[in-house]
Amino acid sequence: MVIEAVPEDLEAKISVLGRLDRVTRKDCIIASNSSSYSSRELSSEVSGRYRLLNTLYYIPPENVCVELMSCGYTNPGIFDFLKGEMEQIGLLPMVAGNESQGMILPRIWVAMKRETLCMLQEGVAKSEDIDELFRDFFNAKKGPCEKMDEIGLDIIAAVERHYLTDAQERILGSDHLRWLEENHVNKGKLGKKTGEGLITKKIEEAKITREEKPPAQEV
Prior knowledge:
Keywords: Oxidoreductase. Residues 1-96 form the 3-hydroxyacyl-CoA dehydrogenase NAD binding domain. By secondary structure, this protein is α/β, with parallel strands linked by helices. The chain is 48% helix and 10% strand. The protein has helices spanning 10-23, 76-88, 105-122, 127-138, 144-151, 153-163, 166-172, 175-183, 200-212, and strands at 2-4, 30-32, 52-57, 65-70, 92-95. The protein has a five-stranded mixed sheet with strand order 1-2-3-4-5, with helices on both faces. Helix 3 (105-122) crosses helix 8 (175-183). The protein is globular, with a radius of gyration of 20 Å.
């Protein structure tokens, strides 16, 4: 099995998958880790589409869920095989019942990202308040701002641009995406990997403040 995990660039992914199709054995499973492109969209240079599918892993590596989705031509036996192999190494595979742009979790996540960015762009809330509310309500370890910083804001912007069709842009607008690109991506503030993003710098500053704070005096 070989997994394509290049950035969310349609032409690059199609090219890489085509090369993998040409250089691998015909019984080698070819998977794409794309969260926004279906493997059907990426299959134009793959002659053996029976062995092509999406396998979406999540970061950080401690996350055990993996989404599997057919390209429309995937041999059904591949899913049973991969589920068995993945379960043996502690992963939790889930198969999408039908082809879906964004598969399962990313379809939920795309709405959360968009509304979070809209609130930041509109000045409705600060990133730390959004994340605190999210963690409290959902009993979550991280909020949407911290999660986007962890993924990388350049990747977030590329995925948002892919999802935003002309029709969606007319209905939903794209101010949130322009705000993200102008204030963060174009300035190199990409999140955790650069040390500054939507909330990363604030989290680090808060840690330093806590470490510098003297211990409480015993009474």
